Amino acid sequence: MQYVKETLALTHPGALKALTAAVTFAEEMGVPQCIFIVDGSGETIASVRMDGAKYLSMRTALSKARTAASINAPTGTMSFEFGTSAGIASQGGVTPLPGGLPIRFGGRLAGAIGVGSGTGEQDFAVARAALAAIGADPL
Q1: Which one Pfam family would you cite for this protein (predicted)?
Q2: Which end of the chain has the lower number of beta carbons within 10 A, N or C?
Q3: CATH code of residue 107
Q4: pLDDT at site 92
């Protein structure tokens, strides 16, 4: 029986590179965003609230990142009822809103990104730009 497992962890230079790419993409779109990058356990590595981004989106962007890390999948796919119940049970730590993506390398979870303040598609586009900048698996 095996008692340990090998895990991946996104480094802070990787998180900062992803964050910079996300901000650049959001600026090019003209949509200021709140962006969180977390490790595999949902703890924040890097974050920013761009000038003009909705301040309440800080909370949703963090929840999107933590949800994506927790379920190792994009956010926005769970049913409204389940998402609402999970959000209440986790005191806002889980959200059904779109805009969160896991950060994977070779299929293995290394962290996640959550983006908020635009439409769901805009949030996902910014998150995908961050993943591409660090060579993470595309989603």
Answers
A1: HbpS-like
A2: N
A3: 3.30.450.150
A4: 87
SS3 assignment, position 130: helix
> What would the two tokens of residue 81 be?
């009822």
Query: Considering only CA atoms, which of 19, 123, 132 is closest in space to residue 61?
Result: 123
The DSSP 8-state label assigned to residue 73 in this structure reads S
Which structural domain, as residue segments, surrounds residue 71? 33-133
What pTM was computed for the model? 0.95
Residue 138 lies in a domain: no
- How many domains does the chain contain in total? 1
Say how far apart CA 85 and CA 63 lie, in whole Å.
14
Which residues, given as ranges, of the chain have pLDDT below 70? none
* Residues 35, 97: Cα–Cα separation, whole Å: 14
Query: CA 93, CA 47: separation in Å to the nearest integer?
Result: 16
